[in-house]
Amino acid sequence: MSLDGQTEMSRLYKLAQTFNCFYLSGLKSPDCKPFFVEGYQVGLVRPDVMKQLLKYPEVFLVGSYGVELNPAFRDYEERSDQIDKVLRELRAENVFIALKGWRDECFEVKTDFLSKSLLKMDRCATCLFGIRNYGVDINGYVRHPVLGLCLWFQKRSPTKQTWPGKWDNMVGGGLSVGHGILETAHKEAMEEASVPLHLLNNLISAGCVSFFFESERGLFPNTEFVFDLELPVDFVPVNADGEVETFELLPAKECLEKILTADFKTTSTPVALDFLIRHGLVTPENEKEYLKIIELLHVPLQSIYGTCNIPINTNIKENGTSLHKISNN
Amino acid sequence: MSLDGQTEMSRLYKLAQTFNCFYLSGLKSPDCKPFFVEGYQVGLVRPDVMKQLLKYPEVFLVGSYGVELNPAFRDYEERSDQIDKVLRELRAENVFIALKGWRDECFEVKTDFLSKSLLKMDRCATCLFGIRNYGVDINGYVRHPVLGLCLWFQKRSPTKQTWPGKWDNMVGGGLSVGHGILETAHKEAMEEASVPLHLLNNLISAGCVSFFFESERGLFPNTEFVFDLELPVDFVPVNADGEVETFELLPAKECLEKILTADFKTTSTPVALDFLIRHGLVTPENEKEYLKIIELLHVPLQSIYGTCNIPINTNIKENGTSLHKISNN
């Protein structure tokens, strides 16, 4: 189980820093401001986005404390419609790369995974508002008689909107409006890899990873629900929805090398890395930054998003004194 | 795999709050002050401890910013000796419950698991200074043909200094001076449970848990290196060092019940809970606070202890202006 020296190992720590580039730097800068809906912080907005939102004063109240969705909007539908209208205009103006990936598939916007959704938003736009993003990933693995522990990886289709042609975990997908966690895992396993139902009975929930990434597209405070699926040696995944170019079975040690390359989707590496830690490939004996890496697989998004709320139905424009308290995230 | 309703489930979240009682409240209060050695924050000191340390001005510099070990001490040995002398006096005076558990077994005091040790201190005293504490735990489990996934728990000897008579993970121990992680795991597995060497080859490193507990004895910013060990159905652990009263094999679902009782050592529950999450017993479908619980199994001790340092060899008494920066933990 030992790996080839320390040079390789500190590369894993660098990787953990890369998928947490926003957690480790941007989050501490005052440039990004909280985004409030109904008095709750649901996101973070970068200056480039804030500048565009200023053009819609009837929808967004923009101040030094942050951005607030107009509290006059009455309900989920009105809030969703108003934001959708703005996003479609910004998309037509070609202002943001992120909006080029419009999918007509919405994510819920809420303060917490359990709480009632405040509005829905096309999934390509959530990164503009730094909305928390929840997904499901399946580590499809094989205990190979010759190669030992192996993982199936998929190569994403070259026509995908995001991360085209990059390597990825066997199965993964975002949690979109109206779908449960296990339901999404089953659905994606069947669509992406044609996993038959009798094998899905072996699916084991195995925790979650949380990290905070930033790219030119926006902010990604991501939480992935992680599942492990042991597969028979003779099972070969076959894509059914056109989103995967190919699959490859790799010995665990080669998986470690693969996630360290630029060919792997950065925001999918935490799930594979967590698998390799849980299954004894990356250990405190072979990885000197073991504790720091595990901490960076579980950054406290619950706390980051939970500590900056203002009471419901407080219009922060009318209540200047309370603003300063919430200006520093 | 589904569990019996939500009432039971939110008990797990309460448990996670219990073993993080200091993380969730004390840490945010200004009462506890950082403890500096050679300019690095290595701990946190409660007011009751600070009051006692005031009696040793030649050893501890106590100010509003925190407590500093006299920077005039030249090296590891002198620092260790000076603190040892104070601790033996305080022990003789019967001031602290914690010191009743004196063991003549030292833990290293360092800024980070990897860094050079600054001094050593009897393990019973580290909680007085809020020194980070590293241990090793082994989840000994069986895939039972009838009972399904089962875990071995140990009942601690009634004569143990800490948590006497409480239930605990099959094998666990602190990392004491001069011993490595895997070495400690092997040593404890043999001493506590008589696990033979050929079975120890199946030991799988499976991550770590980090939490921040407080009791009447002191502060416990603990990190446990976690190992899983699959055992044959016919293996029965036998204690060899007198520290265990008995062992019991329990189906995973009963383990969940057991760690929720007051009969289980609170600071050992995170390891068992992490096991039950990684092995699909506690899932996002049956535990509504799943994400919050996993976050509380990985609190950012690296960040908490890493952000409050002052440069080496700066005597903070001579440099009043820099103190305010470090006064708020």
Number of strands of chain A: 13
Instruction: Tell me the CATH superfamily of the largest domain in chain A.
Output: Nucleoside Triphosphate Pyrophosphohydrolase
Helix and strand element order of chain A? HHEEHEEHEEEEEEHHEEEHHHHH
- Largest interface, per-chain counts? A-B, 37 and 36 residues
Which class of secondary structure composition applies to the elements of chain A? Answer: alpha+beta
Organism (chains A, B): Psylliodes chrysocephalus
GO molecular function (chains A, B): 8-oxo-dGDP phosphatase activity
Protein name (chains A, B): Nudix hydrolase domain-containing protein
InterPro entries (chains A, B): DUF4743, NUDIX_hydrolase-like_dom_sf, NUDIX_hydrolase_dom
Structure description:
Two copies of one chain form a homodimer. In chain A, a hairpin with a 2-residue loop joins strand 3 and strand 4 (66-69). Chain A is globular. Helix content of chain A is 29%, strand content 27%. The first copy, chain A, is an alpha+beta fold. Chain A has two domains: 6-23 and 133-298, Nucleoside Triphosphate Pyrophosphohydrolase; 31-131 and 303-326, Transcription Regulator spoIIAA (2-Layer Sandwich). The first copy, chain A, has helices at 6-18, 21-24, 47-53, 76-92, 181-193, 197-200, 252-259, 269-278, 290-296, 301-306, 320-326; strands spanning 33-37, 40-45, 60-63, 66-69, 106-109, 119-122, 133-144, 148-156, 167-169, 171-174, 204-215, 218-230, 244-251. The model of chain A is unreliable at 1-6 and 308-329 (pLDDT under 50). The N and C termini of chain A lie far apart (42 Å). The first copy, chain A, is built from eleven helices and 13 strands. In chain A, helix 7 runs antiparallel to helix 8 (269-278). Chains A and B meet through strand 11, helix 8, helix 9 and helix 10 of A and strand 11, helix 9 and helix 10 of B. Chains A, B: InterPro entries: DUF4743, NUDIX_hydrolase-like_dom_sf, NUDIX_hydrolase_dom. Chains A, B: Residues 133-274 form the Nudix hydrolase domain. Chains A, B: One of its GO terms (molecular function) is 8-oxo-dGDP phosphatase activity. Chains A, B: This is Nudix hydrolase domain-containing protein.
